[in-house]
Design brief:
With 395 residues, the chain is α/β, with parallel strands linked by helices. The strands form four sheets. It has an eight-stranded mixed β-sheet, with helices on both faces. A four-stranded antiparallel β-sheet has the order 10-12-8-13, with helices on one face. It is elongated, with a radius of gyration of 24 Å. The termini are close together.
Length: 395
Amino acid sequence: MNITKEYIKRLVNENFDLAVEIRRFFHKNPELSFEEFKTHDFICSKLSEWGIQYKPNVAKTGVVAKIIGNSKSDKVIALRADIDALPIHEDSGVDFSSTNNGVMHACGHDLHAASLLVVSKILNDTKEKWGGTILLIFQPGEELLPGGAKLMIDEGIFDEVKPNLIIGQHVLPEMETGKVGFCSGKYMASCDEIYLTINGKGGHGAMPHKITDTVLTASQIIVSLQQIVSRKADVRIPTVLSFGKFIANGATNVIPNKVEIEGTFRTVDEQWREEAHFLIKKIASGVAESMDANCDVNIKKGYPSLYNNPEQTLKCQQLTKDFLGESQVETMDIRMTAEDFSYFSQKYPSVFYRFGVGGENVLPNNSLHSPSFVADEEALKTAVSVMTWIALSHV
């Protein structure tokens, strides 16, 4: 590569207003998972305008573009951005708030998509200066199972060319604008949904000896299942089992025939994940049986854990330090949140990192998936420049 970081910084500054314009378009026009039709068409229109070849309607509303450099290098780098929004009514107060009632870009996907579009333009404008192939993945449905990443892989987006590295990035409101964070190895958790239905013979609460106490049974199941985390999980493997929904539709003196419980199981180890699923079924069914009830267990398997290739992560972290400065790059801890970029990371060397959007005008309690979520748009400079620099440093 014959491109300096000063040259990249100049191109990013020249395209900053464009990045803001694109981001605000996405923010004003958010669309739910696999319904990103307007978003899809806007992305295609920009790629067409800039003369970048692409394939539309991948996994329904996704787009995969390709830029080939000036040589026959066999290096292939893929860059990914998610494009969907959340079913949240916006209350951020920005003058470019959502015009789609009840839908909001509350997780920063508008910044991700805008950044990748501008990265695409810069890479295309400089393609005579670098070799190899860069794939640009505008992915739908990150917020909804089974996840757009899985569907895109299943549709064969890498059948013709397999990436040597896949790069993804995500906003982080707790991090100051201008900073970037990396975590090598295990980074984000798998995410499974747990549905338990306890069935028994309900009846009068004053005559417990004549009924099956489904409420007590369900309560005992929740308590017993915590042993999976406290006594069965390897203490070196982060594990979370939480229940957030408990429906016992009886009355003060009525024990219902059925109780429904819903929760989530998360971990960063795929082998332990499978073992834990077995234990959840075994313990829930066993406790129910011991109390003369039965328990139907349904585990809806979600995204796998996200693994950052250690060698590539350290390389990308050092490249970012070289570009932004040592003080602007942090080493991050494991997170128990989930992300469907993990499907890419399970198959190909991958690096998924965070960039800060917590500017001076952003409230300290600003959080993702909140109706009041606000991102500092200056962060677009960091997002565009770091992704561009990492991509060009690998081809």
